Amino acid sequence: MNTSTVIKIQELTKQFGSFTAVDHISFDVKKGEIFGFLGANGAGKTTAMRMLCGLSKPTSGNGTVAGFDINLQSEQIKQNIGYMSQKFSLYEDLKVWENIRLFAGIYGVKENIIAPKTEELLNQLGFVNEKNTLVKHLPLGWKQKLAFSVSIFHEPKIVFLDEPTGGVDPATRRQFWELIYQAADRGITIFVTTHYMDEAEYCNRVSIMVDGKIEALDSPTQLKQQFNAKSMEDVFFRLARKAKRGE
Amino acid sequence: MQTIVVKNINKSYEEAKALNNISFSVEKGELFGIIGPDGAGKTTLFRILTTLILPDTGTATIEGLDVVKDYKKIRTQVGYMPGKFSLYQDLTVEENLQFFATVFHTTIKNNYNLIKDIYSQIEPFKTRKAGKLSGGMKQKLALSCALIHKPKVLFLDEPTTGVDPVSRKEFWEMLRNLRKQGITILVSTPYMDEATLCDRIALIQNGEFMKIEPPQNIINNFPETLWAVKAEHMSALLSDLRNCIGVKSCFAFGEVHHITVDTEILSLESLITFLQKKGHTGIHVNPINPTIEDCYMQLSSSKGNL
Amino acid sequence: MKQFLAFVIKEFHHILRDRRTILILLIMPIIQIILFGFAVTTEVKNVRVSILDHSKDDITQNIIQQINANEYLSISENIYTTDEIDEIFRKNKTDLVLVFSDHFDNDLRHSGQASVQIIADGTDPNMATMYVTYLTNILLSAQQSLNSGETLSGKFSIQPVVKLLYNPRMKGAYNFVPGVMGLIFTLICAMMTSISIVREKETGTMEILLVSPVKPIFIIFAKMIPYFALSCINLTSILLLSVYVLDVPITGNVFSLIFISLLFIIVSLSLGLLISTVTQTQVAAMLVSGMVLIMPIMVLSGMMFPIESMPHILQTISCILPARWYIISIKKIMIEGLSIFMVWKEVCILFSMGIFLIIISLKKFNNRLE
Fold it and tell me: Which chains touch C (3 or more CB pairs under 8 A)?
């Protein structure tokens, strides 16, 4: 296995009864890559992501995430990834630093590292004055930026982001992506889903899922050429319109 | 005739000011969009207009009826689709529709024409439980339920949040069709690209309207010069552009970066030279028309808060 | 009316489609009745009585025989000195000691009074009281038989022990059936109704209903009807079970019983309604009904411990529980066989509680979101 490959998936399949949610998907993701995982609602994105995070067992197929087998080593996978979603990110009724402390502890960050790193993170985000603020009192965009920083606090190999910027204002959304770039530059692999098609352009490579299968996978530029489309939105429309199942 | 008239509405929750002196009006048959991020006050405004909560100060009328005094009458005349999917998950598609029809003293048959285009798409699944529907189909069912009593005004609070681009596009096509039937529609969304589909929009931030105009006017009145810049290494380009004198703002916009420039300091040619000196290759700089998102960011930064 | 019907149908759909919950609601009363009736019984069995007979005459022998013949009591030891009393208690050889005074026979015949002493282990006061009551009961019946047999009838004083008149065998189930009824109806009516209303707040459907011309009273009553129906089924199953399985007879009028039960069901429904108006989430509704209603009902309503033996302060608190009045009236009608006119006080209290709760809840039911 190439050492720079952090996700390697082969023929991954998940069936619920007679319904095939994820249908034999295969792909690789390299270290430090920003990998966009697109698809219409119900195309199977969430199911696929759950298998990659070690939260659900594939019906068939195999693969490795962060060097661990998704069928056998889900606990090790969880130790080596970060996860952030739009719905659950931080505990609203804990303070900013308490959230950082909690998640750092959960992921086994060493005690003597937590304190200086927390300061560094707050400085970087410009949150120094908000250290003792309850998370619920932060504006949504700030919460999402904080949640992302918390999810990579333990320097995971890969971070999974499930619609991280939904509903965030346009300026903060961009600041969020700049954080993503910084993380990717540090060598953290970003696996991200989004409904904003302009964000698809920020990814190194994009896969588009339709009805449980990956219908396209390439860099945004290549995809636009391949489908003779102006933008990623056009590419997405061409593919997703073909969807048969009503999700 | 003005269907919705809002005057100086204020609303606070504990310390936080949710709405700050909001005034606007919506013409009959207009498709009016309220555009802004989560937490800007969209839902609070919708709840005041649908008589669910009371404003602290200010007045609002729907079809000439006061939202505080005449709330009972308003409730017979408006359709409302809250932000969250709010139908009975354990009832089937048809049972949900049937129920809401009866609640509004009507039958599916009576107003079938109005919902036909939308409902016919989910009718094949009418015996399926609403909870088992996909996002797009849930949305269609919720819209059908909100329309079943032929409301004069339709309030749609973030109907497309979390919905994929294809379903979003379909949904907006449905709204355009409804507008043709003379229904006044007030819709909110955090997706800036949807703004151009409205007749008029209000850009909302921190409980305040920054602008109320047709989207094209907002775009035409963009006060800055906007260029799209592209090069081989986009992230390096971003920081170099920010350090370039004459560049006022710089944001990533998909495959290009959008910059607003002070043309007295910086010309197109001098920017290219500057970037070449920094070692960029494959440089493209084009003057472009702004999108609503550019306008939103420009307005909010001129208000002094991002 | 059509609107209302649509609501009721919807509510039945909700309930009937949630198979697990409805199964629990229907089976729970049955299990509780059987459990309380058989397993968690506080009935007295095999109480060991030791005798210290200073008199040793015909009458004391007669009484001792009666004790031995009783199915719940048995003679364990015969002791001869007062010093031994302490010892046999410590060695746990006895539950009770009965001491006959010197010249028992003589005293009784001549002065009409003789003294017996009953000594019980006070570490478990509830059980001790119960044992003592058993034994006193036998002494009483001995007195009665003496009275009827002797020409000197009427000379012996008889202390009436009211409790035993109605429950001579002290059967546990007698007390539990009304208690379980109170508990079940509170659970189904108050808790389930409040949860089902609050669920609509949580899922956001309440928002849509409020922005519709439907009257709040429709929403509320439509919620109540299915749970009312469910409670009626449970009432039937509880009554059938207690009569045919637990052998607890309905001595009073069945219709009075049903009437009061329906009244209590309505009171509980309005209680649930009130809870739903003050809570915003299903969890909160469940906690409030659990902590504020179910727990106190178990403890304060006389279901587990007799109200009479509770401290005054708790007795006063128990007065605000509808279940207390319901359980009392059911005991009176079902077990004591009194007519409904004898429980007019309880009926009035329940009735006014119901009216009060409904008025408050309707006032509190918000036709807006805040």
Answer: B
In a domain, A246, yes or no: no
Structural domain containing residue B234: 223-289
In the listed set B217, B238, B266, which residue is the last one of a domain according to the structure?
Answer: B217
- Chain B residue closest in CA terms to A162: B162
A19 touches B at CB < 8 Å: no
A91 part of contact set with chain B, CB < 8 Å: no
Q: Which of A167, A201, A246 is the closest to B190 by Cβ?
A: A167
* Residues of chain B contacting residue C211, judged by C-beta atoms under 8 Å apart: 50-52, 75, 78, 80
Contacts of A221 in chain B (CB under 8 A): 255
Question: C348, exposed or middle or buried, with CB in 10 Å at 0-12, 13-18, 19+?
Answer: exposed
Question: Is residue C51 predicted with pLDDT exceeding 70?
Answer: yes
Q: Is there a contact between B35 and B52 (Cβ–Cβ < 8 Å)?
A: no
Q: What is the pLDDT of residue A195?
A: 86
- Rounded CA-CA distance C225/C270 in Å is 12
List the single residue in A140, A175, A243 with the smallest CB-CB distance to B37. Answer: A140
- The CATH classification of domain C47-166, taken from the options 3.40.50.300, 3.40.1710.10, 3.30.300.20, 1.10.10.200: 3.40.1710.10
Is there contact between C and B if contact means ≥3 C-beta pairs under 8 Å?
A: yes
- As a dihedral over the C-alpha atoms of residue A146, residue A152, residue A158, residue A163, rounded to 10 degrees, the angle is -10
Alpha-carbon gap: A97 to the closest alpha carbon of chain B (Å): 23
| Nearest CA-CA distance, residue C305 and chain B, Å | 42
> Does A touch C (3+ CB pairs < 8 Å)?
no
Tell the burial category of C90 from Cβ atoms under 10 Å away from its Cβ (0-12, 13-18, 19+).
Answer: exposed
Whether A106 maps to a domain, the answer reads yes
Distance CA C9, CA C226 (A): 9
**Count of the separate structural domains present in chain B:** 2
- In the structure encoding, which two tokens stand for residue A162, read together? 């499930």
- For helices A170-185 and B234-242, the axis angle rounded to 10 degrees is 120
pLDDT values of chain B reduced to their tens digit, one per residue, 306 residues? 799 999 999 999 887 889 999 999 999 999 999 999 988 999 999 999 999 999 999 999 999 999 999 999 999 999 999 988 789 999 999 999 999 999 999 999 999 988 998 999 899 999 999 988 887 888 899 999 999 999 999 999 999 887 888 888 889 999 999 998 889 999 999 999 899 999 999 999 999 999 999 999 999 999 999 999 999 888 889 989 999 999 999 998 888 899 999 999 999 999 999 999 999 999 999 999 999 999 999 998 887 554
